[in-house]
Amino acid sequence: MDLVLKSFQKTNLFDFVRTFSIPIGIMILIAMMVIPLSPWQLDILFTSNLLVSLLVLMVALQTFRPLDFSSFPTVLLFATVLRLGLNVASTRVILKDGHGGTGSAGKIIEAFGEFVMSGSYAVGLFVFAILVIINLIVITKGAGRVSEVAARFTLDAMPGKQMAIDADLNAGIIDSEEAKFRRKDIAKEGEFYGAMDGAAKFVKGDAVAGILILVINIIGGLVIGSVQHDLTLNESAETYILLTVGDGLVAQIPSLLLAMATATIVTRISSDNNDLAGQISSQMGLSRAWIPVSAVLLLFGLVPGMPNSLFLIGSFISGLVAWFISKNDQNSPSNEEEQKEKEDDEPGKIDIEEVSDNSSISLDLGYGLISMVDSDDKKNSGPLISKITGIRKQVSKELGFVIPNVRVKDDLSLEANSYKIKIGHTIVAEDKIYADRKLAMPGDDTQLKIQGIQVKDPSFGLDAYWIEKHMVSKAEANHYMVIDPEAVIGTHLNQILLKYAGELLSQDDVQFLLDNLSKVNPQLVQSVVPKLIPLHHLTIILRNLLVERLPINDLKKILEALSNLSDKKLTPDELSELVRPAISSLLIQKISSVNEPLNVCTFNPDFEQM
After folding, report:
1. 320 has pLDDT over 80
2. In 3-state terms, the chain is what percent helix, strand and coil (to 5)?
3. pLDDT in tens, 566-599
4. 101/93 Cα distance (integer angstroms)
5. Contact at 8 Å (CB) between 479 and 445?
6. What angle do CA 280, 147, 61 make, to 5 degrees?
7. Domain covering 382-501 assigned CATH 3.40.30.60 in the classification
């Protein structure tokens, strides 16, 4: 047995069975449609079918959100095929051996038929018809419609959800790992509801097939019993209708359970804390809702001619439930939490989150600039967030490491049109802009002085004017360069990121760069860090390069240069100076293109000797 498990790369028998249970199950389904089954085998399979349907329904009821049962569409397909395969097998047995009596198709079919029919063909047929109507017209049709709408709405909402994730990521509310997880969750949600839209058709087709199989079994049984086995029409009806109704019921009940599971899944509203029972009990367990119910039942109980005792008992029970709920609410942990929150909100109470901020970069805005962050279109983020995203990508590509998220938040202590940029807890820049205006900067050919609020450009310190939007055309006609307010903040932020890049690089960032490089040059990374140079020394070296506006894109050349200098006992600052020649090509690219000559200045040899 161990040899078999090893050959399939399985550690234990449970993993082996779990892996091959579906292929084996499919083979059994195909076999039961072709190979005749005995009555006791049918009993086992019908019991298994009922067990599977109940299990699926219970799992659907216990999930917190639909995606927790993401395999449901596939499970629904296999359960439907299992039931149809059983119908084929039972039809063969009923038509072939039904003349031998009601027990010829197994105990379960006989028991269901006798229990429901109660000696009357009409009762059995009507009960079966009602079950089919409930399944097909009510539950299946409703679940199918909800699946279609949910699939369409989910797919339509995906772009907006993606943009919301990007906005949260840029604002520093979530990290990259959380953003990646949420994006995968959205993709799974779209796939799930798309699959459910098609899976609902399985349930509907199964209900229709049940009706057709019932008709075929009754007609076929009457014909075969009368023609082949010389039974009277009454004897044929007595046997074949009982078996057919029993077969239909033993198939329709699991079908109804699966239809209920389908409807439960597609109508479920996601919850992080409660399963379906918890959701319903928490939302319907309102004492103020049960008290009117008790009062109305009490009124019915006082009306002459009504079954007063039943209504009065119902009124008493409803009132008792309302009392228990009210008492439970008073002692519930939620009330204690609310009381604790009230205590926390007392004047003088300080929360640690109010005084600590672990963001590497933050942009604080006055309340007059919040409109630049928000967007009326839910599918798109605000203009400032989009601008910051582009700047982070641009600077990250230029410097060679991923710039941390910029946390954008409002600060009521600032003036309405003010903003400040912080690196860690240190304010490194602050200025004032106007969200409802545009910044006009005069060019070399500008002669006309335009009307507006005269300021200094926050990025370059040049004279500029905040002008009304209706004056943009006039300003451009007079050779002014007109800039949107979000571009003003973006340009200012871009300069700050370049200036303080050395402070933004952390040891975690350096380790991430090393891990990425080790995928291509593992030996180089292992031979340098930490054998020759510790991680914190390498971080200091890279920070020194960034302070001098030198990119660290080519980490491979930097490590090779450091490996050549390993025999010298040098400080990180000295190593930083000696590494510069290794990235000289990157320095030249910043000031000249490949095809253009580079003008240089040289000292007189006599001057060099001084």
Report:
1. yes
2. 70, 5, 25
3. 777 888 888 888 888 877 777 676 666 666 777 7
4. 12
5. yes
6. 30
7. yes
Question: CA 501 to CA 428: how far, in whole Å?
Answer: 13
In this predicted structure, the answer to whether residue 339 has a pLDDT above a threshold of 60 is no
- CA–CA distances in Å: residue 510 to residues 31, 146, 155: 60, 50, 39
Count Cα atoms within 13 angstroms, Cβ side, for 248. Answer: 32
CATH 3.40.1010.20 holds for 506-609: no
Does residue 124 contact residue 117 with C-beta atoms inside 8 Å? yes
Whether 382-501 shares its CATH topology with 506-609 is answered no
Q: Residue 322, SS3? A: helix
Quick check: 59 and 71 in contact, CB under 8 A? no
**For 345-484, where are the alpha helices, taking DSSP H only?**
352-355, 383-399, 472-477
Token pair recorded at residue 174 = 């979530």
Q: End-to-end distance of the chain based on CA atoms, in angstroms?
A: 87
Alpha carbon 577 to chain centroid, angstroms:
48
Say how far residue 469 (Cα) sits from the centre of its chain: 41
pTM: 0.53
Strand duo 406-410 + 361-365: pairing: parallel
Look up residue 292 and give its two tokens. 């009117």
Token pair for 190: 């779209």
- Sole residue written with tokens 């290794």: 582
Task: Enter the tokens of residue 341.
Answer: 């929150």
Domain-by-domain residue ranges, the chain?
Answer: 16-146+200-276, 285-339, 382-501, 506-609
Alpha helices in 228-241 (DSSP H): 233-236
Structure tokens of 542?
């890279």
Annotate 344-374 with DSSP letters as a single string: HTSTT---HHHH----SEEEEE-GGGGGGT-
What 3-state class would DSSP assign to 463? Answer: strand
Mean pLDDT of the chain: 80
Q: Give the pLDDT confidence score for residue 352 in this predicted structure.
A: 45
